[in-house]
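Risk register update: the risk of archive-format incompatibility is retired. Evidence:
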Amino acid sequence: MNTGIRYSLSIAGLLILWKLAAEWASLDMLPAPEVALTEFGREVKSPLFWTHFLSSSVRVVCAMAGAWLIGFPAGILIGYYRVLDRFISPIIFLTYPIPKIVLLPVFLVVFGLGDFSRIFIIALIIGYQILVAARDSVMQLNARYLDAFRSMGGKPVEAIYHVLIPAALPQGFTALRIGAGTAIAVLFFVESFATESGLGFFIMDSWGRFDGGRMFVGIMGMSLLGILLVEAVDYLERTFCAWKFVETGRNVSDEKSGFLWQKVGVYGHMIKFSHTVFALPFALAAVILANRHYPITGFQIVWILTAMVAARSAAMGFNRIVDARFDSQNPRTSDREIPSGRLSQQSAGWFVMISAALFCISAGMLSQLCLILAIPVLGILFLYSYTKRFTTLSHVYLGFSISLAPLGAWVAVSGRIDWPILLLCLALLTYIAGFDILYACQDLDFDRSAGLFSIPAQWGAKAAFHVSSLLHLLTFLCLFFMHLAFDMGALYLLTVLIIGALLVAEHRLVRPDDLSRIQAAFFHVNSAISILLFLGILGSELIR
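Archived output:
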């Protein structure tokens, strides 16, 4: 199980426990997770939050770096030279159990109220852990390694670099990883008084205001900082202890990395990630149009993009699982990831759950309204996978479910539904439904034999082409009326005329009796239409 899945499952479990605890306690200072996440979404847009986050990051990173640079070499030297160990180790083990945090008032008097006192106390606490770990690693090293090194002419000083440091690094990094958690705990304490910056101050200030939601924003910020520190230590260990991962002449770390990228490619191919280009430009166009009356921010754009990709990934992954039986029987789709065995249904299921969770998180970051609507939207997206089992209008339903993308982007920015944006949604609905009918002509015979519903299977390819042409005519009309509804400029009108010509070309590329160029019509022409529409709206707004 990779890191992303482990973190996603852990977060999901914590959110469930958090929700139960909040419902049971019913306290203002223990808000429900959705309330805290919504507050977190608001606060991360504020430069003030990132000022506190950066202050805490600088303090804890400097402390950990200082603790390592002093504690690790000292531990090696004490463990290697017995004379040093004989006199210094008793002092270490006498002072190690003393809670260093109680000395903070002394350090504040001696070193002043600045950052140095706080960095020093954190470094002192975790420096002991690193020193003891390095010292014990050297003490436990089998003497035969040193004897072998000396027999090859190695000098005592050289043994430190070539033998002792590699021997001590693994436990040293383990101590540093444990120290990251300790450092975050101490950081909260040292920032809780005599300072006006840092996440600890942020949390205590919120507590003093009796603002539970804002307090948990600081707590989540500290959790995020802790995760980043642990992942950074893991990365350093993989880099400087690469020999730990060497197995039968191969670097397991590199192998896992390559395997991970291979898996990413498999998942991306399963959901046809490149086809995101069909609907995404429509959503971004809605954002640009909404910006006329509802100014947008960079954070909103990031979360809208994340929500779009996550929702589509969840829907496509779910569709591949539900249709796996039919895909394995259809010669055109039998080589897809699940039927071919390149991806298990269980792995695809995890992918769908993680994508759905990411969509809900992204919606929560945008607004509470978006979070409330997230679950119904997922239900609409997932339902499409079953429509071919009972209705010929499955193509129209697909267009409807995808047309929620620009509507969702509009609601994320404006917090309301305005009728002009429905023209863009209807344009996307008819546009998607039209070319999905053309694409379904490839499976006409299979759909009939499998008892699946589609317009080509029910009415024949020739009738399906007429329906597709009618839908694309409606697409053109919706885009034209958008020119009136949004008072667009001449550049947009020119764009619509070019899109109309491309739609005609798409229907000329394929015929009921010749589907050989369906891929060119499906991907190249349709992606050009989507991108061209976005550029036309963007250009018009820039001129405006």
